[in-house]
Amino acid sequence: MEAASTHKPAYDRLAELKAFDETKSGVKGLSDAEITHLPRIFHAPPHLLDNISPSAAAPDPHHHHHPSPIFPIIDLEGATDDPAKRNAIVNKLSEASANWGFFQIVNHGIPLTTLDEMKSGVRKFHEQDAEQRKQFYTRNFSSRIVYNSNFDLFTGPAANWRDTVSFNMAPDPLKPEQLPTVCGEIVAEYSAEVVKLGDLLFELLSEALGLRSNYLKDLDCGRGIQMVCHYYPACPQPELTLGATKHADNDFITVLLQDHIGGLQVLHQGKWIDVPPLPEALVINIGDFLQLISNDKFISVEHRVLANSMGPRVSVACLFGTYLFPNPRKYGPIEELLSEENPAKYRETTTAEYVLCGNNKGLDGSSTLLQFKL
């Protein structure tokens, strides 16, 4: 009989995922253990690692180097009190939302100190003693506070090198005392600021669609906010995995605060473009629902985050969606935007049905929107 010892034990992916999940200490726990090799559950399939060398890499001398397209930056100064400036801003927003699905905003009204404190609060949460973090660790996504590693750990093709804590902050805000002690004050303060900013953005986006200012607000687009706070530790083998697999967001819009490390990339005209970190800026992107109700006038674009060896990177994504509260409203393409030349491209859906559909498949690199095409 052949000696069993010559055979490596079969790779039991599910058992390894469960063992990792049961530590309740996430990727940060692995990072604290100073592992030098990336566990196999994090190895991304090759097609998802397409072209992960950052685009800032040295240009190939044998190719004519084409400059990267400039990532749009929109200055919101004057948006609320200067009609001419507002008009110019609406035009820029319209163009960026139609061509990129992404843009950065400056002069958005949230103080730089608040942005810095928010990033620092996320670091403090993820860097506190593992025992303190563990009390929030859960896979029950109806919880108001969810801390875990990879929402799609058991359904996605590969685990991403990141941990996340998310707070359900609207329409019914958590109070500082209901939030983790290390970051409660700033989470409550920052989310209140983002709610105000969301109001303004939805007005400007309504106008950019040629609708009255309150149109999107009246559809509840700005009512629900999930604040998703990601932590990406330095990775021992960043070329084998991702911080976040390519995906589009299943919401109306996302307001993202990112730190100085970089790694966020947007798929623009078939190429991965780096989103340059700007300390005073917020990154805004159009989500699947806004693409659906605008009947493809505005696009929800795939993006990803590279793993990095510098770390930790932190980011805070505020997702404006309505799946956090019971919302029977059906969303379909907006009547006013349709015509004989531009018929509806999507069937109506509730946000709950849509999110369930997306969560069931995990971050597999495909678009949930396709499942709702007429």
From TrEMBL:
Cofactors, names only: Fe cation
Annotated keywords: Iron, Metal-binding, Oxidoreductase
PROSITE patterns: FE2OG_OXY
Annotated family: Belongs to the iron/ascorbate-dependent oxidoreductase family.
Official protein name in the record: Fe2OG dioxygenase domain-containing protein
UniProt region (Disordered), positions on chain: 52-71
Record flagged with keyword Metal-binding: yes
Every Fe2OG dioxygenase domain range: 223-323
An annotated Gene Ontology molecular function: metal ion binding
